[in-house]
Amino acid sequence: MLPELPGVLTGDQLRATVASIAAEQDADGALPWFRGGQLDPWDSVEAAMALDIGGAHDRAAAAYRWLAARQRPDGSWAAEYRAGAESAPAAESNHAGYLAVGAWHSWLITGDEHLATELWPAVRRGLDLVTRMQLAGGAIGWALRPDGTADDTALLTGNASLFQALRCGIALAGLAGDAQPDWELAVADLGAALRSRPDAFADRSRYSMDWYYPVLGGAVTGTAAGERLAADWDRFVVPGLGARCVSDRPWVTGAETCELALALAAAGQRDAAVEQVAAMQHLRHDDGSYWTGYVYADDARWPVERTTWTAAAVVLAADALSGATPASGLFSDPSALPPAGMPEPGQHAGWVPGGAGTVSP
Predict the structure, then answer these.
(1) Segments of the chain scoring below 70 in pLDDT
(2) Domain presence at residue 169
(3) Distance in angstroms (rounded) separating the CA atoms of residues 266 and 166
(4) Within a domain: residue 209?
């Protein structure tokens, strides 16, 4: 069932948005920002998840297979591809981890045991690299240096995303019957850093993602989540337009607004979440795609592009708020993934929601 948000988005409108994403996919499965544009692994996974929500399962699987086929032996991907070739070779930790989120999301929606089995080795290599990049204080370095060691700079948004990715990886490990105690220990230390060690991360507090992502990624929950979102609300939210990308610019962006909606849903603030999805609909194009952002001081769209990942964020938010698919809780319910406390090795290896089956290793 395709999601819909009454009074905001109909099922037909979301179907058009999914179709707009599919229209940008290359014949070999590559899913770039837009046809002929750049592709990065994180945003490609985001767009593939939207395809799965819309029922385009073959297209989503093709996007995941494209990524798996281009993984490097060390578990990394290039930061950017163009026309199938690496155009920015730097290896970033959040790119290495995010396939786990897509693979788990795909499993929740389709129950496709074959695809989960096929993607598991790539997920495992990626998250093994992530754990090797973890720093002494629990945070994870943002990139690999040329000598293969982790940069000692950690980015809060990327780490919050990796918190979710490691938990998805642990869930997949349970399906595969392949316990990953190092991941369990890594996510416990990472969660502690995200909640209580702000000095472990570079100061990028002008970016709205650093504000809401610890809630969206599931590291900050309950009362603390509500307090965090309330603290900077007026700094980032423009009534009727959505969320700023950065606090000091008159620029609202669609993906950040929908991600904020996901964080609000995770904090139990559904009405506020729906309000944000409604607020960003001024970015919708006639074909169902979405402009990336809007500089309201100049009444101008900027950049002048309609990106697959912006459209995907709309679809993910609509699904989370409507509960339309079996994956709808992945971004809106922090309890939908294995616990991320301080476990004994292997404690969560058999965690499977709802008694799902076991995937062969």
Answers:
(1) 341-361
(2) yes
(3) 18
(4) yes
